[in-house]
Amino acid sequence: MVERREITARLRKVEGQVRGLQRMVDEERDCETILIQLMAARSALDKVGLLIVSNYIDECFPGEDPKVKEKAIRPLQFILSRYSLLLESEELLSEDG
């Protein structure tokens, strides 16, 4: 189980990345550089989400065999990744309209 301090530290890192992105936009940096940093921030935030889900499963199945927990985590990871892709595609479609 990941400690709350580690999750908070990761969120602070994401916060710093987002501030860096704001600065890059203000400085009118090139789009490719901004997009690369944006993808890194999203990836870091997604990883925090998976840690939170993993902690939730540990709390829901405290005495379970680690293999049972792993079986429970896999479908949730898949669902979250699909949800993330769905949101991305909806955002792209709404921008085209």
Architecture overview:
The protein is an all-alpha fold and 97 residues long. Helix content is 87%, strand content 0%. The protein starts with a helix and ends with a helix. α2 runs antiparallel to α3 (66-96). The chain has one domain (4-96): Methane Monooxygenase Hydroxylase, Chain G, domain 1 (Up-down Bundle). It has helices at residues 4-26, 31-60, 66-96.
**SSE run:** HHH
| Number of helical elements | 3
Count all strands and give the number: 0
Q: Specify the helix fraction band.
A: over 70%
Uncertain stretches of 5 or more adjacent residues:
none
Q: What is the CA-CA span between the terminal residues?
A: 43 Å
Mean pLDDT: 81
Beta content: under 5%
Integer tally of domains: 1
Q: Indicate the structural class.
A: mainly alpha
CATH architecture: Up-down Bundle
> Radius of gyration, rounded?
17 Å
Entry summary:
The protein has 97 residues and is an all-alpha fold. The protein contains three helices and no strands.
Which terms would index this structure?
97 residues, mainly alpha, 3 helices
List the helices and strands and how they pair.
Elements: H1 4-26, H2 31-60, H3 66-96
